[in-house]
Amino acid sequence: MAFKSRSHLAVLATALLAAAAASAQQQPNPLDAVPEKMPFDVPYGAPVSLDRADAVLAAAVADSKHRGWKMNCAVLDAGGNLVSFKRMDGAQLASIDIAIHKARAAVKFRRETKAFEGGVQSGLTYLITLDDVVASRGGIPLIEGGKLVGAIGCSGGTGSQDEVVAKAGVAALK
């Protein structure tokens, strides 16, 4: 396509830029949505006891052994403090701190760490700038009587393996 003058080219470029700008303005930003209720608004409760934490870990470790997975599993209380920890024989050393960190993120943010993983995968990369975020499955809050009493964090396998073992621990709390 040939243009008779530079002015025709300028008009076309201006029209294309205006159309692109209008199109961009019409796309609502999902982060601008204002929810009616506060998300993840679970009240904090009394800290999980050592006996309850050990029961959660026993179930997680039993499930992990049954599957042949070597895991590190931690239970933190509602204040984010370590209550109990199990490191299975042969579990990778790096996963000691990761398991604790997953549980801490689940307590502080009152949600599963899987939520951060999904957010980052969908392009919400700002999440990784928040203190104590772990964008990997395996950190799950412990809810008892409608209150958050602590969290379990598991690490050593893939994220989905860590999540399965953590869920086995959570099931023992009920």
What is the gist of this entry?
The chain is of the alpha+beta class. It contains 5 helices and 4 strands, in the order H-H-E-E-H-H-E-E-H.
Describe the structure.
The protein is of the alpha+beta class. It has one domain: Beta-Lactamase (2-Layer Sandwich). It is 45% helix and 16% strand. The protein has helices at residues 6-26, 50-67, 94-109, 114-121, 159-173; strands at residues 72-77, 82-87, 139-144, 147-155. Strands 2-1-4-3 form a four-stranded antiparallel beta sheet. A hairpin with a 2-residue loop joins β3 (139-144) and β4. The N and C termini lie far apart (72 Å).
Counting DSSP E segments of at least 2 residues, the number of strands comes to 4
Radius of gyration: 24 Å
Mean pLDDT: 89
Structural class: alpha+beta
| SS summary, helix count | 5
Q: Report the principal-axis shape.
A: globular
End-to-end distance, in Å?
72 Å
What share of residues are in beta strands? 15-25%
CATH topology: Beta-Lactamase
Number of domains: 1
Which segments are poorly predicted (pLDDT under 50) over 5 or more consecutive residues? none
* Name of the top-level CATH class: Alpha Beta
At CATH level 2, the architecture is 2-Layer Sandwich
Q: Strand order of the main beta sheet, please? A: 2-1-4-3
Q: Say which CATH homologous superfamily is assigned.
A: Haem-degrading domain
How helix-rich are the residues, as a percent range? 40-55%
What is the element string, with H for helices and E for strands?
A: HHEEHHEEH
Question: The biggest beta sheet, please?
Answer: 4 strands, antiparallel
